[in-house]
Amino acid sequence: MPLLRTLPLVLLDADTYARLWSLLDEGERARANRFMFEANRQEYVAAHGLVRLWLGRLLDRPPAALAFAPITPQGKPGLVDGPPGLDFNLSHTEGLVACAVTLEPDCRVGADVEPGGRHIGADVATAMFAAEELAWLDARPAGRSGPDMVSVWTLKEAYIKALGVGLSLPTDSFAIQPDGPCLIRHDGSMPVGQGCRLWTRDLASGHKAAVAWVGPEGRPAADLVMEEGLADLW
Ligand SMILES: CC(C)(COP(=O)(O)OP(=O)(O)OC[C@H]1O[C@@H](n2cnc3c(N)ncnc32)[C@H](O)[C@@H]1OP(=O)(O)O)[C@@H](O)C(=O)NCCC(=O)NCCS
């Protein structure tokens, strides 16, 4: 079953931050130190500490000993020497980080989190969204503005991230139906024999989260399981 663990950054006191920092490897610490803004550094440390703690718990391995490397040409991170069937995906945004995990063979996950009130300009939607998504938005009370735009955005991003292809996939080459939600067109981006399942959640923190699961057709994913925080992971 796909899992999504969220970590609101209000839960991150100085002691917790220091413990997460101590789990990171040299490369992660160097990258964290390159951020110009402290808020971005905190998001990064929280996200990478979370994935280490959580994968360490799920796989019964020391979190600080885990190593990561890209698993797609566009740079989707994977676990070095991970068990077959493990896939995970991180997302960070203002005030929240999240990590999706699946442990089923041949399945992939993608996650995206955004502030629910994030402004996405109508011009951006027109340029990035599929015709079906624009038609859906135009039939909504707020049209091409407001939280519906964020729902479409996060779902599309989660699908792209599950595939691991980044923006090499034109964002209008596939279409999401946010009611459901489900994938209604993919123009071949999903491999033959694979199916997709999508979830979107409004979080108490005010963020929207979306998760995409891609796996063997005919083996639908169980429902998404949500978890929050770090308390049970130390
Ligand atoms: C890099 C990208 C995968 C996600 O970027 P993002 O939305 O800015 O950031 P998120 O916080 O959600 O995700 C970043 C994390 O995804 C992971 N990631 C990086 N490359 C990835 C890839 N090719 N596939 C999946 N995950 C990837 C990494 O863990 C990264 O965090 P890290 O750099 O701290 O390790 C890519 O899809 C992108 O550039 N998106 C831009 C946003 C956009 O235009 N979306 C269109 C929606 S219509």
UniProtKB/TrEMBL annotation:
Domain 4'-phosphopantetheinyl transferase residues, every copy: 108-179
SUPFAM superfamilies per the UniProt record, alphabetical: 4'-phosphopantetheinyl transferase
Source species, domain of life: Bacteria
Any one GO biological process: lysine biosynthetic process via aminoadipic acid
Protein name from the UniProt record: 4'-phosphopantetheinyl transferase
PANTHER family reported in the protein's UniProt record: L-AMINOADIPATE-SEMIALDEHYDE DEHYDROGENASE-PHOSPHOPANTETHEINYL TRANSFERASE, PHOSPHOPANTETHEINE TRANSFERASE
Family: Belongs to the P-Pant transferase superfamily. Gsp/Sfp/HetI/AcpT family.
